[in-house]
Amino acid sequence: xxWLKLLHFAALLCWCGSLLYxxxxxxxxxxxxxxxxxxxxxxxxxxxxTLFATPAALLAIGSGTLLFLVAGQWAGWxxxxxxxxxxxxxxxxxxxVLVLRLERQPERALSLECSALGALAAALVGITLWLVLxxxxxxxx
Length: 141
Description:
The protein is an all-alpha fold. It has one domain (about 1-135).
């Protein structure tokens, strides 16, 4: 079980970091940096999303699911945490949509969408962290 917790924690660090970093990377790439690059080889945004963020997300969600199934915990805070993690997964999917939009229209400004997505991801990561550390006693423990 300690190894599973360590895997979950490491994957979460990578995933949450990438959720906070990707919107800024997408916004900076949309400001004209990619207009002179070759889309099939020079998109670091796609590499970060596909080879780093997505595997970290899958590991974090999979190991987290195993943790609460093995521990048999079903508390009110856990249900809220799972809702916040679902929101983080939605932010992850929206990052993928923005990556596709960036590749199709590199000159299009995406700063407003990226700012909103970054703020939402930061709020969800903060809520998740608070729920895990505080473990508020709502409902049966």
